[in-house]
Amino acid sequence: MVVVIVMVMIMMVIVVVMVVVIVSLLIVVMMVMVMVVLVMVVLVEMVLVMVVEVMMVNMMVVVRL
């Protein structure tokens, strides 16, 4: 019986460790995804700002002409 109890304890510990590792990996993956999304959004906003500035300059030139 003691051997069975020890085996069960070891199995439980292994399962808990697996779950913790999987959850930590998921959290890391989520963080990386969030960072990538933030970087993409910042890049898109920068590109949009550049385009808007170019269009504004073009409009000013057209208005002056």
TrEMBL record:
The entry's keywords: Membrane, Transmembrane, Transmembrane helix
Segments traversing the membrane: 6-29, 36-63
Superkingdom, natural source: Eukaryota
Protein name, per record: Uncharacterized protein
